[in-house]
UniProtKB/TrEMBL annotation:
Classification via Pfam families: SusD-like_3, SusD_RagB
Residues in SusD-like N-terminal domain copies: 22-221
Annotated Gene3D superfamilies: 1.25.40.390
Superkingdom assignment: Bacteria
Coiled coil: 378-405
Keyword set, alphabetical order: Cell outer membrane, Coiled coil, Membrane, Signal
Source organism of this protein record: Sphingobacterium alkalisoli
InterPro entries for this protein: SusD-like_N, SusD_RagB_dom, TPR-like_helical_dom_sf
Family under the similarity heading: Belongs to the SusD family.
Protein name: RagB/SusD family nutrient uptake outer membrane protein
RagB/SusD domain mapped to chain residues: 344-505
Source lineage: Bacteria, Pseudomonadati, Bacteroidota, Sphingobacteriia, Sphingobacteriales
Gene Ontology CC: one annotated term: cell outer membrane
């Protein structure tokens, strides 16, 4: 069975638009013609298009969800532009090209068209079953929820668009909905999805890259944690633990999570192969000798918070956790690489084929899957929710489950502290395990928004800024919580007159 991305897409012009103007989508008229939605094959092709539209946005999602986390330092590639530098400096302006959300709304309007029109094929193709359609509809609702979840974590207030683009006469000027309204909309979609998507697919190759009930539960647990609904988050995580709790990759096999990917603890990964679309990780972390890596790793900023009580500096094998273990060619190429204007470490877990020896993937990381959810992140979600319920011993047990699976000594009861101290240490543990996987800024914002926890984000981001910005300058830029979210791009404001720039950014 060929992976999803190898299917021939029927809409190449759509996939290539890359438009950054608000809802300036170019969905062809044939999406709404009765003759298009005539049979199962056309519906399947449209479903593949929905998944492929997710590929179009992964680079943007990585920037929004991770690049402000201070784990990064500029690479030698010419693609590291002023726009990326603003994110790293915590000084973002409305003209920044990385703010454009047009391609995300293009994906959403594709999904809206599928939700509206795909059921019509049932009446025209007797080989197309209602149960098969329901599974696809569930995937559509889940993909729409996932897109909106990235938007709301990035901008907080965003427009909700439920209807497909079907005519040039349609008007899409739409005011931004409140964060609560967007989250309610997301949860409604996830509820529809959970009742429809497949528990799994009998053919394992069909499962790869497709949304299942476990994917929906992972997204929903993340949403519940964002909303500070801790018990609801734990209930969803418990369902996932029942499936994945005994499937953690063995310590000596940990690199299989990234190469070849689709490990036993993987929940949802966007699939890449050597032909077809290139993984966005290839453009971010391609190896230094190619001289085009957009980013390198700022290991100094990881080390600074590794206190003696969590990692014994006299024992280098246990200095950090599994996937950012400071050993040659594990998560990082241990020796720093230097170039005119900077230096840093290669993020080897995305570009290597095997650990502990220099062995790059063919043509870089072109075929590195983009991991959207894996089980160890679920364990960190549980730990965070339990800690917020003052169940610290249980929270530490979740962290120790990861540590012991990495052959890392367990933390003793109480050693991680409580309240802000615990959350600061939790973020460090997340970075050791999930670093550069796209969500560490989101995790820091989620924690920092709770009363008394702001310094979990501000101090971490202000220390050891990779661009050399002073602690005082970066801290000042982040004191207002509105700065943790992004402004609307100026072109979005010009295209949508009902969209109003946020107060924090009006004078920038």
């Amino acid at each position: 069975m060929i992976k999803l991305l190898n299917y021939m897409l029927f809409l190449i012009p759509f996939m290539m638009t890359g438009c950054d103007k608000f809802l300036a989508v170019e969905v062809p008229d044939n999406l709404t013609h009765d003759e298009y939605w005539a049979n199962r094959e056309q519906v399947v092709a449209s479903m593949n298009g929905m998944y492929s539209s997710l590929h179009n946005n992964l680079n943007r999602f990585q920037v929004w969800g991770d690049s402000r986390s201070s784990l990064y330092t500029p690479g030698p590639g010419d693609s590291f532009t002023t726009d990326y530098r603003q994110f790293m400096a915590q000084d973002i302006y409305p003209e920044n090209g990385l703010l454009g959300w047009g391609s995300v709304y293009t994906a959403i309007t594709w999904i809206n068209s599928f939700i509206k029109n795909a059921p019509g094929a049932l009446e025209r193709d007797q080989t197309f079953t209602e149960s098969e359609l329901n599974v696809m509809m569930g995937e559509a609702y889940a993909l729409r929820a996932l897109n909106y979840f990235y938007l709301v974590r990035t901008f907080k207030e965003v427009p909700i668009i439920e209807q497909p683009y079907e005519s040039d006469s349609q008007q899409f000027n739409t005011a931004a909905s409140s964060e609560e309204e967007v989250l309610n909309f997301i949860e409604a979609d996830l509820d529809r999805a959970l009742s429809a998507v497949a528990p799994d697919f009998e053919n394992i190759n069909e499962r790869y890259g497709r949304i299942t009930k476990n994917t929906v539960k992972a997204i929903w647990a993340d949403v519940k944690l964002w909303r500070n609904e801790y018990q609801a988050c734990l209930d969803l995580c418990a369902d996932l633990s029942a499936v994945y709790g005994d499937k953690l990759v063995e310590p000596l096999n940990w690199f299989s999570i990234f190469s070849p990917g689709n490990s036993s603890e993987g929940i949802f990964e966007y699939q890449y192969v050597q032909t077809g679309f290139a993984s966005p990780l290839y453009n971010w972390f391609s190896h230094f000798q190619q001289n085009n890596a957009k980013y390198l790793a700022n290991i100094a900023n990881i080390q600074v918070n590794a206190g003696e009580k969590l990692y014994l500096p006299t024992d280098p094998l246990h200095f950090s956790a599994d996937t950012i273990r400071l050993k040659n060619y594990s998560a990082f190429r241990f020796s720093p690489v230097s170039y005119a204007g900077g230096s840093g470490y290669e993020v080897y877990k995305f570009i290597g084929q095997s650990p502990y020896e220099l062995n790059y993937r063919p043509t870089g990381a072109r075929n590195a899957n983009y991991i959207i959810y894996r089980y160890r992140e679920i364990l960190f979600m549980e730990a965070e929710a339990l800690a917020m319920l003052n169940r610290y011993e249980e929270a530490e047990a979740r962290i120790n489950k990861i540590r012991l699976q990495c052959n890392i000594p367990a933390v003793s009861t109480g050693v991680m502290g409580a309240d802000l101290e615990f959350m600061t240490n939790l973020l460090m543990e997340r970075e050791f395990e999930l670093g550069f996987e796209g969500k560490e800024w989101f995790a820091a914002v989620r924690i920092a928004r709770r009363s008394g926890f702001a310094d979990a984000l501000i101090v971490k981001a202000a220390e050891n800024n990779p661009l050399g910005e002073s602690y005082q300058v970066v801290r000042a830029r982040l004191l207002n919580p509105e700065s943790w979210f992004l402004p609307y791009h100026r072109t979005e404001l010009e295209s949508n007159r009902l969209l109003v720039q946020k107060d924090y950014y009006k004078n920038k």
